[in-house]
Fold these 2 entries.
Entry 1:
Amino acid sequence: MREEKDFDIFADADDKFIYEISQKCSPLSEREKERMFAKSEKKYGKSKKTFNIKVKLYRKCMRYKNAIASVACLILISGLLIFLTILESNGNSKSALKTAEKMNVSEISDSFYDEFEICKQKEYKNLDISECMAIFPDIDSFYQLEIKCSSENRTQNINLDDVHWYFDNGDYNNKSFDIYGSSTSIGEAVGYIENSYIYETFDNIDSGFGVDVIYTGVQPLDNDKNAYIFAVSPAWNNIPFDFYDRRILSDREEYYMSQTYLMMVRDFVADTLTGLEFPEVEEVGEKISEIYPLEDALNILSEYMTQKSLFEVLTAEFVYKGKYSEDKLTATLNATWKFTMYNEESGKYYSAYVDANSGEIECVG
Amino acid sequence: MTGNEYGALAERSLHEAHRAIFDDYCDYVYAIAFNRLRNTGTREDIEECVSDIFADIYQIFDEEKTDSGDIKILIGTVAKRRAVDFYRMLNAKKRKTVFLENEEIVSDTDIEEDNDRNELRNAMLSEINNLGEPDSTILILKYYYNRTSEEIAKKLSMTAVSVRKRCERAMKKLRSRFEQLDIDMRR
């Protein structure tokens, strides 16, 4: 028989007593609470038959495997902003703006994939968007952001040659791969990264932050096991960052995207491959609840691009894009339509940004 | 928080709704799970149980329309059921005999005894509260939640030595008060 101790009577307390005790004081640290919350989110996600990670279509993109990896590497490694001669403007982007009308962000959220399908059926002079994949976050308004830029170096040299990439869209949420621990679906893995990972890993980050999985890779390991690789970006209120951060080398500054890579070898345990940072952030200006819709952004892009060549639009995303201050210590982030494109003639990949609020266009490669 | 408030929040963001319900009821749910598993499970088991409970709660709110009433009762019920399941599972794992006294068996003869014990517990809690802060919190963390002096010290921004000293003094005071009231702490 167990020896009786002081206050043993508390052991089988009634509801009222337990409630009073719970209101009196909490035995839990913030870290313990965060851990339990993250676990509850993970278990909730696993218990759901279908994952609803935003409203993404999910499409296997074999043909873009190299394309997407190349775009990522190009942007990550070079980090240079180059205005391209091939993007010579033959029209006036402002003329497109004259006919463009802003829409409520919530209306765009509701009808985004319908509008996207309509855009795919349209014929543009110089854009082919028939195979484009698109994402719009679940938002109804946003602010301009100001962030402090990081000056820390981070590892860039990772080998992703064997990785088979899936753009994060939706159709393949239920596709499972054997990783250590269990057979885990892409939807479950992405759900863990987007819903629980940062709460389990980072202390004291602003609650507005999240991580956005841009595309998911599957890397074969030994023994018929695989590892998931996630190309992720910090996100503020569901809008992913797409800005160039800087690193200072001994003799020069380089710029790189905030996008980074996470790896999951064992189920629901992730680690960073290239470091993931959350900068100091401040919402500035007035709340923005009206923007140019996708179709207008595509019109602006089409007017801006040369008509002498065809550009295959690979992806359309809604992101925060940064503009640096002169001293490069801070950046202003605006919500922007981002398009990645491929031009067969030059064999190169390009990114084009259309500011969702002002309609300004910028192209980089 | 009411079911309707949760619903409105969930329409905006499911994650925010989960966070709000977790923040509001984490301590309550933890106390329920702790109460059931204190002699059976480890602290890790209790954490697992709490996360299971919240996953169940999110699921219930997904599937059922909740009314505008206080959701505390619903949460308390889900927590107790899940904690009992967890308790049974742990015992099954350990192939341990489950003593009848630990199971939820209610009979006519128990009701009167239960009432006595409830009254006694409330009297004890009231006496503990009369000790004032931080002594009352120290005693609850130590004797209800089985936290070490070091953990309590960290939580209350004190040293472990002063937690021990305060605890000794508070217990002495409490014992003498209980003697006056004829309360047996080990009942």
Entry 2:
Amino acid sequence: MNAVVNLWEGLHPLVQMLIKGLCVIGVLFPIGGACSLVERKVSAAMQGRPGPNRAMPFWFAWVPILGPALQRLGVFHLMADGLKMFLKEDPLPGHVNKVYFLLAPVLGMIPALTTVTVVPFGAYLDAAGHLVPLGLANLDVGILAVFAVSSLGVYSLIIAGWSSNSKYPFLGGVRASAQLISYELSMTLSVLPVFLWINAPGGEGTLSLFKVVQAQSGSWHGFNLASAHGLWGIIYLPVSALVFLVALFAETNRLPFDMAEGEADLVGGFHTEYGSMKWGLFFVAEYSNMMIGSGVFILLFLGGWNPLPWVPLADLAHWLHLGHQPILLGALSIVIFLGKVLAFIFLFMLVRWTVPRFRYDQVMKLGWQKLLPLAIGNLLFYALLIAWLQPKL
Amino acid sequence: MADLLFYTFAFLTLACAALVVINKNAVNAAMFLIVSLVGVAGLFVLLDAALLAFVLLLVYAGAVVALFLFIIMLLDTTPGAMKPFKAATMIASTVGGALLVVGVLSLYHRAQFPAAAAPVAAPTLKAYAEQLFTTYLLPVQVVGFMLLIAMLGVIVLSKKFAVPEDVS
């Protein structure tokens, strides 16, 4: 173990960054792929059918128990689908604006992969007993960076819809832009009470996602109502969490806010003209956005890498005697965080196969007439509440 | 490294800003505007003003230009069909350009630049907030009021008022 640590510390910082980045992408992509399989299985289970359970390389049937089990899970459908995207013909329709048509899927991937850098996904205790976040970059303006970069993702949909030069994709692109701009406002407003709450008076002020998790990690001892020490955000900021959740569904273009695709009325929406891996990139970007969105929700409202309310990671490390094992503790915190993210994605899937798609005017009405006033009222309420509670601390 | 990044971002900003102006296709112009704004955000990051950089991206690159694109697509402007300039426009723009060149040249030759100040620590969020709510409170309010007036103006201009019927 020490040899590995020494080798790692001997590397150039840029090489270290590169390896870290590749590791994160290496985790993100397979989970995204697995999610598409789980989505098919979940939808099948909810509709009372077996789902994908046929495809298998013929020689795999000879493996005793594992073979049939993997076949029934549909694992090989996932592999076949992935392979198909790379191998099938990559059409470039004649009537499209070629530069933008090719640029759009790439534009979708860039924000999806850039936001990963500022999301902390774990923590460990250093030698002095302080919690250190695990992440590619620990920015003090973390949440702002996430919002800023992810807001650029809308151009992928607009450009894809516009450059296709055909009616349904164009409608999809226009709808996507209107929807994303509408819900971004509520999303940003819903997050403000969180930062009002965690920024103590007289402090330096921070928008860091790590500090949000720190504010949610505290034990039962020293709890008081005014600071909600150790409780999770969703308990003392329920309206914020609800508004953020709804806006998150809209921002990631998931059903019931599936306006941009709307395969019932728009064929495939913005990606109607796309095929093979170019279409696959849109798909991967959607799942990456979903995962990052869930990650941010968990950091803001569900305690990040803390196992339970009032049970912070530091206490868990103490019980398990992991305080001086930074690598093991880091891995444990990542497992807890990823577990929460996956549970959240499961919620995304349950909602997708339960709630029918909204009509376009319903989406606009919900965004501007219900969600936005609710977010503004929530912000005012918490601003007044915190101003009233502060002198009592 | 920092110098190289500065020149990269500065070139990106200026070249794309020029392309925004000279491009005939409105969608191309809007896309170059985004790249130009990203360049400015990069310059802000080099100045240790990460907050400004991300606010710029969030508000301008993320929302304002998206609205531009939205409008461009709804209006469906066809590129290429441009009217030739009038004589008055030509004269005015030449004079304006000449004045700009003279101004930049005189600044370059005659201005006395103060010595570079010692680098200060990156401003905290609290510093931004305090400045905005104390020293710069009036400018912020004035700018907000101007935006409100512009918004009201648009609403008034775009609203079709019903012609009152003659009372006979």
